Queue: 4 jobs
Job 1
Amino acid sequence: MLLEVRDLQVEFRTRDGVAKAVNGVSYGVDAGETLAVLGESGSGKSVTAQAVMGILDMPPGRITGGEILFRGRDLLKLREEERRRVRGAEMAMIFQDALSALNPVLTVGDQLGEMFVVHRGMSRKDARAKAVELMDRVRIPAARERVRQYPHQFSGGMRQRIMIAMALALEPALIIADEPTTALDVTVQAQVMDLLAELRREYRMGLILITHDLGVVADVADRIAVMYAGRIVESAPVHDLYKAPAHPYTKGLLDSIPRLDQKGQELYAIKGLPPNLMNIPRGCAFHPRCPIARDLCRTDVPPLHKVTEVTEVTEPDVADRGSACHFWRECLHG
Amino acid sequence: MAEAILEVGGLVKHYPLTQGILFRKQIGAIKAVDGVDFTLHRGETLGIVGESGCGKSTVAKMLVNLERPTAGSIKYKGEDLTRLTGRALKAVRRNIQMVFQDPYTSLNPRMTVGDIIGEPYDIHPEVAPKGDRRRRVRELLDVVGLNPEHINRYPHQFSGGQRQRIGIARGLALRPEVIVADEPVSALDVSVQAQVINLMDRLQNEFDLSYVFIAHDLSIVRHISDRVGVMYLGRIVEIGRDAEIYDHPTHPYTQALLSAVPVPDPAARDRRERIILTGDVPSPTNVPSGCRFRTRCWKAEDRCAQEVPVLAVPAHLGDPTGPAAHDSACHFAEAVSIRRSAPGQTVLPEPTP
């Protein structure tokens, strides 16, 4: 396993109290694998990624428990210096908003080249040549001229390509992409996702794709982890999850996608609102919104049960499916 | 078909680009909207889809008179809004209200919910006598599914979905006939989007509203719309009934747009044929000659650079009653068949032989 997050806990101390953003998250990514982490705002999907990357704002954030094993080493035990070497060279991150993630007063060539100057000790001239090479790789036309331009001179799609180029620069083993195409138009989104998938295959990188978009997940992911209120509520190979969700929240999300045969009818809607992280409901955090909740759900936090049963629609190989629902059987068959 | 409630003709909005401080001269224009025509019928939902910068939000602003058009007409029940001023304009504007995209910035944080929803009555006092306003606001809160007891709360005390309900309640306050909704759910969480869409659907029936529903999410637009217009770089390139556009698109841009939408079904991954467009949308300051889509179009020929395609039913498509026979602004409009796979609306366009 390239990366393994074990029982991670993160909280934020704010004026109004303690927000429990991540409450015991475990997931793993292999080399060459794409793990999609799906969740709504406040589900803890980005905070987990920031903790992995080591860019969590602390304070107010605080990692209160767990391990982040990367190539067998616990990143949380590294000194900041060592951590910095890992970051960028061995794992890199692509952010949603390229315009604010890039430095507006440096040319893209300088920003790309900086990776090589800092991590590889290259001369500025060599670094510039590397930058042009990278821009070619992510198919930015006229790279030789555009390397001298500033971020604002690029379109949204092109800026996201620069972000990808920057992440790829040192050929990291793991890339974390946090909503990489959310700010882009669909036709450009398709270009960028394709590029990312192709490069990931070529370099055999592990990819963690953080998103709220069930469509994007279906297109690229191998495995999927669904988060709700700081926990993973379901984890499964992507085909199985779409065919037969084993958690009512996942099922609700899939059911609320508008479908053709439901035109003119009400859309299925998960009732209620995502919980406030200062005040997560007792028991299963989803119970106030759950259509099949019972007394047990109001008192006992469900562990991540191993989903061992096969339904007629799932593949015979159900290895490694988990659902944090007391009544996952009912959900799976219902 | 029901009567036309809004008729938009030749709508244009150019923002001048100027140079110089003392002697400002115009050196060009951002052609945000460059000739848009459509009709909205009573009780209907017209969806407008398009990518950022295509001018869909500018159209919305002109419909509610937040922007004055450079040219063209917007007729509400036959009366041209763009020619009205003063009291007459104010009277008409009451009937066309807007719901904004971002419920976080479109509500004043220093006003209570009651004041926000009741503010339209200050501008149009004839709608509700002063003593009756609180009662009406409570009623509106109830209508949009919020607790009327929360009338004295502030926007920050509500979640995104609830705030959008407040925005909708404000839009309904003056009993308008037309609601222009500009990306009303795109800022909301997935699990909350469906709630707001259902609410808008219900309100439409309850109050006999006509919607102009602007969004970039094609599946939501299809769900709520009776007709759909597709915009590209300031113009409508294709418009028709929802099934015509989604199942029988004839404009290459519409085909590419539909094929690019990720389908929430991993099984469709390999079977899907996608048209990946190259390049970016050209700048609206420098619109290509002829067909504005030609710079990214795989079908473009010389004719496309010279002749602007008109938005009309393409004559060469044969069967004038078939679903492919709807307005499409392309010289080489072509019917495609769409294959679909469960669940939902997987679109798999392939040219018909």
Job 2
Amino acid sequence: MGLSRDESGGEDGLYKLLREKSVEIRFHGRGGQGAVTAATLLVAAALNEGKWGQAIPSFGAERRGAHVLAFARISERPVPIHSQVRRPEIIVVLDSGLLLAEEERKKVLAGASSDTIIVANTPKPVNVGGAKLYYVDATRIARELGLVVAGWPVVNTSMLGALAKATGIVSIDSVLKAIKSYWPGRLGELNAEAARRAYEETRLAQAEKITVTR
Amino acid sequence: MALEAEEKTGVRRGTVIPMRGNDAVAYAVKLSRVKVVAAYPITPQTIIVEKIDELISKGEMDAEMIHVESEHSALAATYGAAVGGVRAFTATSSHGLVYMYEVLWWAAGSRIPVVMAVVTRAIGAPWNIHVEHSDILSTRDTGWLIAMAENNQEALDLTVMMFRVTEDPRVYLPGIVGLDGFILSHTVEPVEVPDQELVDEFLPPRRQPYTIESGAPIAMGNIIPDEAFEEHRMDMHESMREARRVIEEAGREYGKLTGRDYSSLVECYKCSDADYLFVGIGSWMGDAKIAVDALREKGLRFGALRLRWIRPFPWDELREYGLEKKAVIVLDRSISFGYAGPVFLEVSSALEAKPSMVGVLAGVGGVDVNYEDMVKIAEHVAGLVEEKGRVYVPALWYHLGEFYPMKPGPLPTRKTPRHVNKLLEELWSKKT
């Protein structure tokens, strides 16, 4: 593993390491959608590239269907941080409903700025208050692939593909590798295919506004 | 180049796997070849024993798992197995820990090495499953060794080390490894898992002062003359003091094998040239390190001193780094009601209150505290010191960005912050 063992932050110190060499990500989903698993797979993907990563679940109202959060950090070197992500550079939204209802949308966009990248599961662009929006219809991809568990389309792995496309913080190959080793066999293949398709289909909102017909 | 250097020093790299803190503890238990685990589920600990159960059922671990009806029984069964001569382990949190409290004294007083993981969590009422240190610090006077991890790697390493330290004839006391609930227990980070051969080399075969064997009965826990009892307690105290040397030896050797050195009871981040010091335990001390660098960018020379061990208490290290500082900020994630945080009280006595000292209470009940909050706390305290010269504040509560000074002794008239417990306020006014 190429992971650096030096946890001192080097000459620049830990604060600069966190600000300049690390990416902070927040996942929003509904309980049962696998936001925590997505964050965990992202860490595995980062590790595949010799980077350091961390996935933090946020517990409290982890009921099925409730609005749940998970945090992740990716860095060139280990960062000794364990607090929550307050000003995410990337926000991944697993359920478009969370961007449509005003109260939920506020929670999704908390701490976001115009530099924040939103990666959302939605068939068409939605209002993200000036942030940069990448979107993909992960629900459709899941249905097409038959990736439906207990009536719920599985979108978390697709959204990792979308994240790789929108931000490049990890490569799609690392994502696919992480998925396949998390679920060996057919389930892994199917989820990897979903991620790959989402990677292909992810679009930047501004450039695509007119062509969206759904 | 790096590999060659490692070959020369004898460091052997393990396998880096992303895992939760609870998984890290479970792997440490497996690597330590524990033979009996007894446990009762409680959030956020449960994953540890679930993972161990999984390792046993897959045939990766050769141990007996005893499902008991309570935490009191969990530690009783663990302790019983250990008296029988095997390495034994249990894990708990919060209410589970206070429920088994009596048995902690039985294990320590019997001088039987046992290792337990405590995944720190607030104690109800009201109900709260999140991180706090009131549970682990309530074990402070029981005669158990207590270590506290900052991250998942340390949770694994300290658990392995704890078996060696507690089973050393100079110690023969049980030990607790603490890791913060959710913040470590459920957070996924890369953890380097050492090879089995390495751990086998590091951990000698099980040693303990006596064993119960079938056909050779012994009596334990008898009533003894008061003088003998007091001498027994004096001996426990001596052993606990001796434990620090054993920890240093074990930590140094673990470092030679793994490249991760634990020969000090504390971890210092930029302490030596600092004017001000953060002191504390657990995972948030990582955020304190980031705050140190942020504060240094602003021209405030801070350092962070983390107590990796709470028992034995790192008295010498604290004095070495703390005595000459302008001010020491002690961060406490629990309160001894009516006075101050337990860590503050201990640190203050070690430093004879010589530097300016402020005990900051924060993050109780899992409230998120990050490096930015710590910068705010540091600037506030530095301001107080600038203004008044010398300050000694045992309890200054930091809550959602605001400071609430708490007087030691009689509390000020009841004043609940408005945004907290509004309902309670209403109920109270109706009642009075």
Job 3
Amino acid sequence: MLEAILLTVITAATPLVIASLGELVTERSGVLNLGVEGMMIMGAVIAFAATQATGSPYLGVVAGIVAGAVFSLLFGFLTLTLVANQVATGLALTILGLGLSGQIGESFVGQPGIKLQPIAIPLLSDIPFVGSLLFRQDLIFYLSIALVVGIHWFLFRSRTGLKMRAIGDNHASAHALGINVIRTRYLAVMFGGACAGLAGAQLSLVYTPQWVENMTGGRGWIALALVVFASWRPIRVLAGGYLFGAVTIGQLHAQALGIGIPSQFLSALPYAATIVVLIIISHNRRTTLINTPASLGKPFVPER
Amino acid sequence: MTLSEGSAGIPLLSVRKLTKHFGSFAACAGIDLDIGPGEIHALLGENGAGKSTLVKMLFGILDPTEGEIVWNGQPVTIRSPSEARRLGIGMVFQHFSLFEALTVAENIALSLDPKISLAKISDEAARLSKSYGLPLDPKAHVADLSVGERQRIEIVRALLQNPKLIILDEPTSVLTPQEADKLFDTLFQLKAEGRSVLYISHRLEEVQRICDRATVLRHGKVTGTCDPKLETPASLARMMVGSDVAGVDRDDDATLGDIQIEVSDLAVGARTPFAVSLKDVNLKVRAGEVLAVAGVAGNGQGELFDALSGEYPVSNNEAIRIRGKGVGRVGINGRRLLGAGFVPEERHGHAAVSGMPLSDNLLLARSQSDRRSFLAAGSLAVIRHAAVNTATQRICRNMDVRKSGEDPVAGSLSGGNLQKFIVGRELDRQPSVLVVNQPTWGVDAGAASRIRQALVDLARAGSAVVVISQDLDEIFEVATNIAVISEGRLSASYPAGQLSRERIGLLMGGIHDSTQAEASHAN
């Protein structure tokens, strides 16, 4: 029973963690992309379509990643090259993605999908309990863990990550130091899109291997909230993602057991938790200064 | 003049007919400049004279419209700061280009070869900063550091790149005289190593003391090249502004009136772990008096200003009294209504909203204290634009604010002109108490002299003025009495004539006990 519940928590948390990590990188570079939901659903539908066409869910995963990245390029072009308002553009991207994916996926509705199969890691998967929980998972779960470690290392250990944080903190100074602000932001936006696409692919290939319109069901927004919840730190995204995932699953089990908590209350919990965390971190000016990208959402036009 | 243009006679850097147009406006028009190896070369000029534009072209931030830059005899095009650094040009910016969220070492690493590890940079920075007398903790976050400490990072960062030419923009404005002396030793050390320095400053005494040659700019053109040691401050100033800069005119034996602002036993805890807490602050300022509060950046000046202005009210209502009324718990507008005026530091974003026109900035500051002049009666409080505009133009006229157009946005004014406006905005009310923090930080000589004169005139007209400043020249020019703030404690106040710079330097270092004893003797 416990193992089954924990497995569902992991499956529910993985897309949140991945999409949130992508957005974290985007925001660390100073760009606020509210289009996570839209990029995620595009990833979901394209991943499903590619899997149906080729029969290989792995090609589906790749297609989902590419779809998210390409779709985010639209956001990048509008906000970075044309310097459009990031909030408005992000919202438009979400609306566009939801509509477009419905259009593309119309013929897939009701079709059975192909599930991405778990990969058992030799030896480790034989460990009782932990083995079947953590080492008999699908590729996307392993990727999510690798991304947490990789992004943490990238941001806080590598020089390129340092440059990215510098841009997010003060793009004018970064430009004055000769760092290419626009190019770095393009890459960060595309990375965010690729992650959102991968998260979407997880939904249509692992979580519920089929295509349902609007199947992201607000997970993109939770991922956005999660970035703030985690105060822009990857390890905390992992913890927060699992917390939010557990809340989602808890909600289902509470209903099944007939516990009288309104489901609306439980689905509002991640956002309520984010507000509480915002209040807590805003009290500590130092944490805020050191972790919040100060130029977040601000347009940058190089002086020449 | 030690014309150290190298044995071959080739200057390290030559600039020929360098021009930069912004639209139809020529920020730099045909500038010629030569800097020899091992020379400390001053670049003088008022704000808006084109110094920043020139320096930005040398450092690859701006592309010249016309003209030529010759480096070591070779014509070069400097397209980016990294190219400038590769040539061997280092830069210490006036507005620090630091990243608050990053550590000192990370900030330095950003402008260095990415192959060098962070640990090595930390070690190197610690070593360099020690040997040049600029102590720095490489692991500290910049957000936690004072303005003065931040400048050290900029200097150490430039030095780490082993430059042949180092450009310093107003480097001593945040340093104590002792710290400035150390910096000059650093510069002489660099000169002895054969490196060149381009030194931008408004402080003519400094330029005379350390520079071998000076190039003076006015309105984007070179108005003279000279050996500053052979000039007088007055003759240099004349080249800068085109006319004589008036020294501050004051009478020293004016009689003082009643106490206008009084602070007794003020204690304020640190608001953040990195702020300074104020301890036992006492001061009294009488009508007709200018009290100058000297001190090195980050010793509680900001906190003192916040407490005096009511930006952060204090818990003990009687700790601060303005014209006899306890105002500790009263906010800014309540204090303004009692006849006080306040000018905070940071022109952009604190004293003024850069993106709004001057008239709006005037209204924002005075909508409550001069409600009847600027807002129509009634609950809608409709803005009386005509009255606001008249007042704006009056302030600009009185303070000689030079601007383009009738009512430009605050951000489009040069630093000196905006500062004149925000000081004038308060003076226009004829406040009986005026508290100003760093009134002439980063302001050109002409504007600074205008502002100082205005402060002295206000006191002469019977107001009490508190000037918080790090600039000792300024303090001696305006002050009737001087107190020194150090680590959140304020010394007793001494008549300006009884204090030497050396004594102030000691007080800045926080030698409290002896001074308290001496102060009680003095009284």
Job 4
Amino acid sequence: MAKDLLKVKDLSIQYNTDEGVVKAVDNMTFEIGVGETIGIVGETGAGKTTTALGIMQLVPSPPGQIVQGEIFFKGEDLLKKKEEEMRKIRGNKISMIFQDPMTSLNPVMTTEDQVAEVILLHQEVSQKEALEKARDMIETVGIPRERGKEYPHQFSGGMRQRIVIAIALSCNPELLIADEPTTALDVTIQAQVLKLMKRLKDEFETSMIMITHDLGVVANICDKVAIMYTGYVVEYAKVRDLFENPLHPYTQGLFGSIPNVEEDEKRLNPIKGLMPDPTEIPEGCPFNPRCPKAMDICRKVLPDRVEVEEGHFVNCHLYPAEEYKK
Amino acid sequence: MSKNILEVKNLKKYFKTPKGMLHAVDDVSFFIKEGETLGLVGESGCGKSTTGRAILRLVEPTSGEVNFEGKNIVDFNGAQMREARKNMQIIFQDPYASLNPRMNLGQIISEPLLINKVYKERKKVTDRVKELMDTVGLTPRLLNAFPHELDGGRRQRVGVARALALNPKFIVQDEPVSALDVSIQAQILNLMQDIQDELGLTYLFISHDLSVVKHVSDRIAVMYLGKVVELSDYNAIFRNPLHPYTQALLSAIPVPRMDAPDNMIILEGDVPSPVNPPDGCRFYGRCRYRQDICKAKTPELREYEPERFVACHLVEELQR
């Protein structure tokens, strides 16, 4: 087992809004080994992006607030770092790819200048060397280096996203956080980007957090996966275990909701009902009003995390802790 | 064998741009049988939405025929078109942009009824609105609610109710679930299926999501850069795609399953510009099998096997 690069423990982040307190991330715990990719899966408002912003220390404050928890990166707690120290880590040791390639680039700077900017900021190199490195990086992501002189609007969506990836990777980060990196892309372009990310993972041993709502992308690229619902991780497992034996009714519901291209099913089995209002998370298990297997206890008590098999965690009363204690 | 409710013949829609003519829809022909769902798939900019809109004359076709129940509606005048639209409705992609924020649900859903003066008494209109809300699974309590009070799934239900108001025979669904989360998406897909079974509707289902299209469609048409490149039964297309573009498109879907074979065909480059496209096959530049003939001559959509249409010069050779 690879050594843990990042260890998130009991992380809770909330937003204090006029309508009340929104617990965006509640008691989140996970770890990532060197070269490992973890998928964070959930629907709108599940807290995926807030988790990423929490690790980067970019939660907008106010209204955001990290209430508790620890984020160990290479043994040091990021939450105890000063802003100045964080700035040296961001874009250097940890970088992030945002969802929308159309808005995350500067429209009035050439693409190679944008890649070089990060390199200049974090490495002791001359302007010229930085630019040369930037062009290498642009080539690495599969764009001819001469095109670095062009501006973002001259690029297609897929190419822009590759420039964003080039920026994120230009300082050889140890951890890459990708927030829905392919959601805005067409499927054939998505395939190109996924292939590129896999190659980078193999070549540079970059660890990744892949935030997505697409279980297909998870099966394709991730080693581990955390399923989130209203700020809680409801299931956390190795990808194989999760796909072969999904335990939480919400996870099962997600699988029932996606049309399967390989099989011929006449009807989908969606999860009934809607996501609860984030300021009024139901008591007990947050999923209980939509859960087909809800019991009395689910309406009263928030389930604890139980290790059902090695490395396969679930927060659900269907799997009582007593039965699985070793 | 049911009859064809819609026949599209040589439909073209060009847009004038400063750089030249943009061939959004370029000589597209297909038909839809009564009661079936035809899926129209393709990537952004391939012309699928423009096709859907041109069929309803929400954009005026540059040329070509749209025969609905045997009559070419392209020749219809305003009054005839208004009459025809009672039978042809559309559901839009973005449930946030397609509802007037200053109208409440009752007003939105009753608008088609009032415009077409379907009922004389106000009470009947309200009854019909409530009935429609019931059909799409919205509680009547929401009658006076405004769109901003609803989540995406419910808003899309409002769009469905509005489209159903005039008892249409045919509905164009333009990416109806793309803006929704998967669990909500599944609810809407099931709803559309139930309504189709109950009312015997015909759908043109436009989407970029191949798994969704496969799930809902009886037959599927694949578009690339303004052209239909392949059209057949959904099973045939997924089991044995004929066109090299369809093959690449299908192979690129990440399958949510462990040990899925990793046989993605990675296409090089991007979709070329639809402005002043050159002669020959539109897919030429990215095709693995391209030959000289593909550049010289535009392949026609032809019946390769019964009910299987493909526009590729090399299909016989590739299938061998």
